[in-house]
Structure formats: C-alpha cells, structure tokens
Amino acid sequence: MIVETHMDCHASELLADAPSAELDKLFRRLRAAEKDCRGMDVHSLDTVLIHACIASGVNTCASIKGTLETLGLNGDRAVIALNKQTGDDALRYCWHCSEGVYRAHPYRYGLPD
Question: What's the pLDDT band for 90 if we cut at 50, 70, 90?
C-alpha cells in the first residue's frame, strides 16, 4: 500500500502500486459497507467509509479521497470530514494522523494497536 509522508489532499491518486485483485477486494468491501449504510446521511456515510479505508490500509488523505471519489462520493466533502474528525483526543475525534498517515484511535474502538 502507499504511504505518504505529507498531506496532499488535492491529489486523487489511488494506490497505484496495489495489485488489481487487492483493489477489487477493497472496492467490493467498501461497496458492501456503503450498501449496508443505505439511508444514512452523507456525513455519517463518509465517516463509515473513511474508517473502512483506514482499516484496509488506505490511510493517507490523497488515497482516501481518491478511493471515495472512485465510489462516486464527493472527495472534497470526505477530506473535510477527515480533517474535522482528526485529533489526538480519542473522546472527541475518530482518528489521528502522524506524518500524513491516518489511524483510528485503538482505545476508542477497542482495536489493537
């Protein structure tokens, strides 16, 4: 998977070095998650899909934006959600970012480090 050391949220490159079978599997999972969230408001949907991206190793701003755009969602809105919900306080934010790489707060969701 791609790892960027900067936060270029304007790029929409999507995991150029990932094998096609891996990308197909990723998009099947994301489309299934999107289908499961049918009826949810777009901001909540963005949050769910951003979490799914991060959990799948799609964990930079550019790759998350590109992935959600590929799904047909608004990439700029996703970047706003990503930025708005990023912070070190696990009680207030969904994920944190270090050197351009996003991670869910493990202690908030009971996920392993």
Answer: confident
- What pLDDT score does 10 carry? 35
Q: Which residues contact 110 (CB under 8 A, 6 or more apart)?
A: none
SS3 of 29, please? helix
The residues spanned by each domain of the chain are 20-108
Least confident of 17-31, 60-74, 77-91: 17-31
Distance CA 40, CA 42 (A): 6
Please enumerate, as own/partner, the contacts of 85-88 that have beta carbons within 8 Å and a separation of 24 or more: 85/47, 85/50
In whole angstroms, what is the distance from residue 14 CA to residue 68 CA?
A: 10
